[in-house]
């Protein structure tokens, strides 16, 4: 039996043990199950006397009983009136808070370690859904590459309850950036450097059945606009970095669906933005360019971009943790993070090397301050964008250096609150907004009758303090109840798997 299989079989053994509330009736005739959703044959579940968190309205609904049957919420009613099936596992939710599972809308799980390390870590932290941002390999594939077919298989395994981890809600293309490495033998149209090539690439990716196309900042202006236009005709969203050759207003008007990373507005809202788009980033500019963007920032220059995003329904995914990591690249405490035991050794060494290069690029006091100011200015601009009505999705860039899968969602929630969102607004960005973006509010995003039972049971009120999202008593995933002991088993399994890679 594999380590993961052994871990999965542990789950039913701890359902009535301890943590996540008290089970007042034992599970009915448990059969072999895995730590994932298996709607058929699931024992009904009732979480009684719990406070339901309605983040959209910013209110708490006390003393409710939430009944789950067949993997979905069958009833949400005042505890005194709720009808609980006689064979249900009843969990006492007194003093606890129930909310939808969290979604990370910018994560990277296309690695060999993901099924045994990153995905269990995410689920153990209440992350029940992920938009995977680069799910395919650019042909020609090399031996050992993980491509879209294997990612689809993982997606299906999660849905079937064969793999412990969050739902892979949307799988993206390889990164389209308009340039190629020396010796690249792929067809020229893969670069999307011209309008004709870009249109051909959009058709190719639609036939490949990716869920969206991800672009990078170097894609040429002509190729970008043709790619977005053809992709829109095909019903295929385009997301990713802001192309340096297009302004935020232009990319929004063109129909780009979401723009990633807080630097998008920093690149647009300073006096040298037009010249930068025309001439490109000067070689070796580094922190000097960061310094100029911060010092020459003009809020008035952001107003047209904010209005365009609101007008066109362009979503913004700030991923503040990536900028925070750069800001603290010189801090040796990062390299001593106790969570390193959950990261495979090779990846941990790569993270350390990455941040070493970041700091070495400018280790002067002024350079380090420029990175810090770039990060904090991004927080300020996110608050301004939010006040202007720009829709925000929570994404973390999990998998990038020092962005620890699972923990990172809770840290990014705190970053959004630091930027000016209320705890309720930050939770909306991590729940309802993701479901709205993907057109899946009929199934996800709130604690309501008929929704898929992906839920997070907390020991404290997250609307009072966003840090309470980390106080996880239990996770319900597709109707399967994972108490604190089961979640700790997922963490322990991920630690063992990381040590073996």
Mean pLDDT: 91
Distance between the ends: 18 Å
- The number of strands is 15
Main beta sheet strand tally, sense and closure? 8 strands, mixed
Write down the overall geometry.
globular
Structural class, by secondary structure, is alpha/beta
Low-confidence regions: 1-40
Indicate the proportion of strand residues. Answer: 15-25%
The number of helices is 17
Cα-atom radius of gyration: 23 Å
Helix content: 25-40%
Short overview:
The protein is of the alpha/beta class.
Identify the notable features of this structure and list them briefly:
single chain; alpha/beta; eight-stranded mixed beta sheet; seven-stranded parallel beta sheet; 17 helices; disordered N terminus
Please describe what this structure looks like.
This protein is an alpha/beta fold and 501 residues long. It has 17 helices and 15 strands. The chain has helices at residues 3-10, 118-124, 148-160, 195-208, 221-233, 248-254, 263-268, 273-279, 286-295, 299-312, 320-327, 345-360, 365-387, 407-419, 423-430, 432-437, 484-499, and strands spanning 45-54, 59-69, 72-78, 89-92, 97-100, 102-107, 127-132, 167-176, 212-215, 238-240, 258-260, 315-317, 455-458, 472-477, 480-483. Strands 1, 2, 3, 4, 5, 13, 14 and 15 form an eight-stranded mixed beta sheet that branches. A seven-stranded parallel beta sheet has the order 6-7-8-9-10-11-12. β14 (472-477) and β15 form a beta hairpin. α4 (195-208) packs parallel to α5. The two termini are 18 Å apart. Residues 1-40 have low confidence and may be disordered.
């Amino acid at each position: 039996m594999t380590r993961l299989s052994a871990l999965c079989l542990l789950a039913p053994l701890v359902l009535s043990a301890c943590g996540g509330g008290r089970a007042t009736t034992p599970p009915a005739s448990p059969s072999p199950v895995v730590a994932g959703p298996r709607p058929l044959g699931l024992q009904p579940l009732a979480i009684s006397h719990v406070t339901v968190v309605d983040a959209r309205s910013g209110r708490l609904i006390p003393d409710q009983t939430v009944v789950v049957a067949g993997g979905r919420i069958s009833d949400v009613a005042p505890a005194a009136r709720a009808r609980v099936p006689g064979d249900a596992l009843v969990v006492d939710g007194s003093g606890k808070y129930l909310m939808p599972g969290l979604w990370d809308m910018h994560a990277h799980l296309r690695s060999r370690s993901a099924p045994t390390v990153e995905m269990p870590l995410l689920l153990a932290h209440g992350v029940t859904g992920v938009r995977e941002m680069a799910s395919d390999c650019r042909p020609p594939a090399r031996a050992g590459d993980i491509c879209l077919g294997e990612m689809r298989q993982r997606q299906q395994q999660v849905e079937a309850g064969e793999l412990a981890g969050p739902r892979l809600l949307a799988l993206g293309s390889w990164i389209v950036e308009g340039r190629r490495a020396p010796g690249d033998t792929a067809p020229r149209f893969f670069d999307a450097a011209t309008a004709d090539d870009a249109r051909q690439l959009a058709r190719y990716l639609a036939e490949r059945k990716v869920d969206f196309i991800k672009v990078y900042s170097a894609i040429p202006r002509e190729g970008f606009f043709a790619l977005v236009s053809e992709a829109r005709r095909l019903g295929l969203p385009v997301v990713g970095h802001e192309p340096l050759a297009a302004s935020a207003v232009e990319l929004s008007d063109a129909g780009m669906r979401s723009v990633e990373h807080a630097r998008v507005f920093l690149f647009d809202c300073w006096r040298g933005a037009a010249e930068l788009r025309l001439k490109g980033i000067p070689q070796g500019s580094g922190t000097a360019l960061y310094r100029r963007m911060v010092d020459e920032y003009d809020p008035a220059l952001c107003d047209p971009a904010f209005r365009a995003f609101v007008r066109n329904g362009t979503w913004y995914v700030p991923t503040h943790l990536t900028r925070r990591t750069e800001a603290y690249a010189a801090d040796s405490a990062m390299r001593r993070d106790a969570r390193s035991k959950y990261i495979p050794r090779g990846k941990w060494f790569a993270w350390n090397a990455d941040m070493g290069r970041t700091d070495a690029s400018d280790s002067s006091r002024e350079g380090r301050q420029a990175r810090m100011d770039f990060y904090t200015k991004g927080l300020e601009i996110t608050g301004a964008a939010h006040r202007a009505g720009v829709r925000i999705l929570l994404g973390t860039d999990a998998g990038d250096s020092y962005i620890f899968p699972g923990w990172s969602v809770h840290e990014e929630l705190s970053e959004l609150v630091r930027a000016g969102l209320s705890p309720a607004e930050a939770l909306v960005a991590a729940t309802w907004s993701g479901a709205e973006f993907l057109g899946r509010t009929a199934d996800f995003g709130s604690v309501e009758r008929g929704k898929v039972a992906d839920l997070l049971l907390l020991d404290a009120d997250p609307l009072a303090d966003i840090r309470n999202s980390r106080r996880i008593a239990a996770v319900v995933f597709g109707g399967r109840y994972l108490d604190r002991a089961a979640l700790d088993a997922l963490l322990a399994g991920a630690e063992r798997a990381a040590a073996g890679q």
